[in-house]
UniProtKB/TrEMBL annotation:
Pfam families, per the entry: AbfB (PF05270), Glyco_hydro_2 (PF00703), Glyco_hydro_2_N (PF02837)
Region (Disordered): 1-45
Occurrences of domain Glycosyl hydrolases family 2 sugar binding (ranges): 70-168
Record family assignment: Belongs to the glycosyl hydrolase 2 family.
This protein's UniProt keywords: Glycosidase, Hydrolase
Domain Alpha-L-arabinofuranosidase B arabinose-binding: 614-754
Residue ranges of every copy of the Glycoside hydrolase family 2 immunoglobulin-like beta-sandwich domain listed in the record: 212-302
Protein name in the entry: Glycoside hydrolase
């Protein structure tokens, strides 16, 4: 039998392509020694991370028992990683992995059941203890547990795990959820992560024990709803749940195994600004009231809903709209691939979000270990959790593959119910693995039914790629626009920019690509240019928040990846590529602006009366909108100006040609001509009676973008406004791109005074 390795031993790591600040610490003692499940803790446990034996096979072999295997591997690092000590090539076709180690159960555990826990194994695992199969599991992103008590021998026990991970090979007709993993990494797709990639551990429990607890905060009445799930016979048992501020009990309740509520008096609300966590002690008691099992948990008192803010559908955190700004976080490492080298490394990317002024993170088509969610909970980040997708290749899943995708989505929702940071689930991304639009709608509705307490983004980036179109259901309407920014128009769902940006900068010595190729959506020459461009994009996002009702935006991305260099931080986490202070200031200004939104309510103008449109931008308030050779400009107008200029700068306000609740502006000296936009340029055009002219010449008056004056929104391009720029007049949403669409001064340039007419 293989001797049990001591805690300080491990297979030597291979040299990684890039070294992170934690690479050297990863194998110094037991890898990832922290208790892996912060939401359900017990004092006794045994970590099985460290050196295991390994055999790789291209064929579906039988497991070997009581036999040393030829290789060594450091669990829980995937075999493609340097920290695993194996570092096999991404395209390796040995898709069958056999792991082996021995363990002994502490004598103090006598009389209790022994649970064998796996954080995650990619993709299909079968487990034997002392030559007897104890169970199997399919799915690379969720945890699973086997009670192995009846297979233990009282001494040294042998544990064998067989894993099959076909990745994107289609082996045996497979089509597993894989996210960005591929056997041929290049561009926006990365090295696969095969085998055991999260902590393996043992835990003793009573015969009747707590298996999981679902927590649902209810801030509206200062309670936490609790539902306890158990193993073994619990006939006649009850549950005591105690809410605690630190170690002080602030509320308690007794219940059974249906949901019950625990009071949390004067509850402190959890938010990114104040991520306060309560503790929860759950005690399982038998019919006599004696303690049988006890676990510790935590919770945050927060609520995520949607509601109308100034007539716009917005996400509400604890009843308030705060713009959610974050990044795409894909969770790859040059030394550990899918597995962060240490717990401090796992927390680093989240802390960097906070340092950069973000309040949200989109975990992109990967599910992290439970400790990642704990770090998000304690740091105060809103998490949008993606369901890992099937292949991005245009391959439709069959019925069994679709059912497996849905089963894994269900497990992901069930495992993260109690994390206060998780506020949204994204089910599909850009059509990857999408079978039919009806399936997309059905699966999205199913996720919402599983957890009505969170938002559901049925399809992120349905406007992109191989998507089958807008599903129309769920809470979120999500576009991807590179570079962007841009936004769908808020309607019955909240408007979200699910991916944008992707600005790239080379950082020699801190980049690596398995293919040798590097990708970004737009390259920048240096850190200053990169920061300038990013700050400009954020200004555009802020204008879209005001004009089109945008409520969240996700920038690509927090770190560089293998062949993708569009991160705030290099792939090795050694260099912050932008000016962190300027980035933070821009993001915080965006969040602050969301707390003070102008109403943009409809406002009334004097119909059939003449008026002039005065510029409100400071320094230019002596200018007025006028037409010249049909085109609209702004020009200084004074009492001594020529009569022609005064006439050109005067319009008669008419009921809107396309909508009488809005307005059209008829030229005084060219009756029958109206102010309209055409290809974004504003001009005078004769009313030819066409539907297009009527639409283009109709403007809806809103209370001003700046809070004082009037802003004129296009009737047929909602979210775009009449704006002056360099003396010319344009239709603009202020998102950036063309010069006239510059984010700078957009709100002021798009605000007018309805002034007395220059030509009475």
């Amino acid at each position: 039998m293989l001797a049990v390795p001591s805690a300080a031993q491990g297979a030597p790591a291979k040299p990684p392509p890039l070294t992170t600040p934690w690479t050297a610490q990863a194998l110094n003692g037991t890898p990832l020694p922290e208790y892996p499940r912060p939401q359900l803790t017990r004092p006794d446990w045994q970590n099985l991370n460290g050196e295991w034996q390994l055999r790789q096979s291209a064929t579906d072999d039988a497991p070997q028992f009581n036999t040393n295997l030829p290789e060594r591997v450091n669990v829980p690092f995937p075999v493609e990683s340097a920290l695993s000590g194996v570092m096999r090539a991404p395209g390796d076709n040995r898709n069958y992995l056999f792991y082996r180690r021995t363990f002994t159960v502490p004598a103090s555990w006598a009389g209790r059941r022994v649970q064998l826990n796996f954080g995650a194994v990619d993709y299909q695992a079968t487990v034997w203890v002392n030559g007897q199969q104890v169970g199997g599991h399919t799915g690379g992103y969720d945890a699973f547990t086997f009670d192995i008590t009846d297979r233990l021998n009282g001494g040294t026990n042998e544990l064998v795990v067989k894993v099959w991970d076909p990745s994107d090979t289609r082996q045996n007709g497979s089509l597993p959820p894989i996210g960005k993993q591929t056997k041929t990494p290049d561009g926006i797709f990365y090295t696969p992560s095969s085998g055991i990639w999260q902590t393996v551990w043992l835990e003793p429990t009573p015969a009747a024990s707590i298996s999981s607890v679902d927590l649902y905060p209810n801030p509206s009445n200062n309670t936490i709803r609790v539902r306890v799930f158990t193993r073994g016979s619990v006939s006649g048992f009850s549950v005591l749940a105690e809410a605690m501020n630190g170690s002080t009990v602030v509320g308690s309740a007794t219940g059974g195994f249906a949901e019950f509520s625990v009071p949390v008096p004067n509850a402190r609300r959890w938010s990114p600004d104040d991520p306060f966590l309560y503790n929860l002690r759950v005690s399982l008691r038998n019919g006599s009231g004696a303690l049988v099992d006890q676990t510790m948990h935590y919770f945050g008192m927060r609520e995520i809903t949607t509601g109308l803010v100034n007539g716009v559908r917005r996400p509400l955190l604890n009843g308030q709209f705060v713009f959610q700004t974050g990044t795409l976080d894909q969770g790859y490492w040059p030394d550990g691939v899918y597995t962060a080298p240490t717990d401090a490394a796992l927390a680093f990317d989240l802390q960097k979000h906070k340092d950069l002024g973000f309040n949200m993170v989109r975990k992109h088509i990967k599910v992290e270990p439970q400790r990642w969610f704990y770090h998000a909970d304690r740091l105060g980040l809103l998490v949008w959790q993606d369901v890992p997708s099937l292949t991005a290749q245009n391959i439709d899943p069959n019925a069994a593959q679709q059912a497996q995708f849905e089963a894994e989505a269900t497990e992901i929702v069930n495992e993260h119910r109690s994390s206060p940071s998780v506020v949204a689930y994204t089910v599909y991304n850009e059509g990857w693995g999408e079978r039919t639009l009806a399936d997309t709608q059905r699966v999205g509705a199913g996720v919402k039914a599983l957890d009505p307490s969170r938002l559901v983004n049925v399809h992120s980036g349905y406007n992109c790629c191989q998507s089958l179109g807008n599903p129309g259901n769920g809470d979120i309407d999500d576009w991807h626009v590179y570079l962007g920014p841009d936004s769908p128009l808020a309607s019955s769902r909240i408007a979200v920019l699910g991916e944008f940006g992707g600005l790239g900068l080379h950082t020699p010595g801190h980049e690596w690509s398995p293919s040798g190729n590097f990708f970004a959506y737009e390259w920048q020459a240096n850190a200053t240019a990169l920061t300038d461009r990013y700050v400009g994009l954020v200004a555009g996002v802020q204008n879209l928040m005001l004009g089109r009702g945008l409520s969240a935006a996700i920038y690509t991305e927090i770190t560089d990846l293998e062949g993708e260099l569009n991160g705030f931080v290099t792939y090795d986490r050694q260099v912050v590529k932008m000016d962190q202070n300027r980035v933070r200031a821009a993001n915080q200004a965006l969040i602050a602006a969301s707390r003070a939104l102008p109403a943009l309510s409809p406002t009334t103008l004097p119909v059939n009366q003449r008026r002039s449109l005065q510029v409100t931008t400071p320094g230019y308030t002596n200018r007025y909108l006028r037409h010249q050779n049909s085109l609209a400009y702004t020009e200084v107008v004074t009492a001594s100006s020529p009569a022609l200029l005064k006439n050109d700068a005067t319009y008669t306000i008419r009921p809107g040609l396309a909508d009488a609740s809005c307005y059209s502006f008829e030229s005084v000296n060219f009756p029958g001509q109206f102010l309209r936009h055409a290809n974004s340029r504003v001009q005078n055009s004769p009313n030819d009676g066409s539907a297009l002219l009527r639409a283009d010449a109709t403007w809806c008056a809103r209370t001003a973008l700046t809070g004082s004056g009037v802003s004129l929104e296009s009737w047929n391009f909602r979210g775009s406004y009449l704006r002056h720029y360099n003396s010319e007049v344009w239709l603009s949403n202020g998102a950036g791109g063309a010069a006239y669409n510059s984010p700078s001064l957009w709100t002021a340039d798009s605000t007018w005074n309805i002034a007395s007419p220059w030509a009475p």
